[in-house]
Amino acid sequence: MAEPPREELAPGAVLLRRAALPVAAELLQCIDEVVLQAPFRHMHTPGGHRMSVAMTNCGACGWITDASGYRYSEVDPETGEPWPSLPAAFLTVATSAASTAGFAGFQPDACLVNCYVPGARMTLHQDRNEADFEQPIVSISLGLLADFQFGGLLRSDPVRRVRLGHGDVVVWGGPARLRFHGVLPLKDGKHAATGCVRYNLTLRTAR
Ligand code: MD3
Ligand code: FE
Description:
Blueprint: E1 6-10, E2 13-16, H1 24-37, E3 54-59, E4 62-66, E5 69-73, H2 88-100, E6 110-116, E7 122-125, E8 137-143, E9 146-150, E10 160-164, E11 169-172, E12 181-183, E13 198-204
Antiparallel strand pairs: 1-2, 2-11, 3-6, 4-5, 6-13, 7-12, 8-11, 8-13, 9-10, 9-12
The structure holds N-(carboxycarbonyl)-S-(naphthalen-2-ylmethyl)-L-cysteine (MD3) and fe (iii) ion.
């Protein structure tokens, strides 16, 4: 079978366009199951802002934010129960993408599930609540197109814009791991697989 197109966005940042397309329907079904147990919610930043992106998690721990700060939690603060387990299909896509990108042995223990509706966005930030920055983060986009921004190691560094579409997988590791990144406000649209939303899965080794 043909290799998926592999695009190096920057050292350590590998875009595998449409790599998750063959299993996209299965991933969406897994999201539906996760959400039954741990519904999407709008968390608040430590500064008190309500996030426009709705989030939930699966795996041994999940990323949360509230007045006390940004961190990982072994339980869903809404219920006090553990997060739903990491679906096997998430793990398979993430570990195979990581090894294609040169990160063999990736063992994610957390998956943040983001849900964007038109207008939702994520301002430039770094992902630094994980224990070991030697471990990459794998992101999987589903549904509506997003204009993703990635910059450098300083917030003030220039940003590049990359359009991420249904089934696109990106591995962020090595020197790209701490780059600033964000998502511009989602544009209106309708996708055959997801309707009027975009989902993004980020698989992480949090602990
Ligand atoms: C670059 N999510 O959840 S995924 C996030 O589309 C997040 O929902 C965005 O940023 C989204 O934290 C972007 C792409 C991504 C994820 C993690 C990264 C890019 C990254 C970590 C380091 C550098
Ligand atoms: Fe991020």
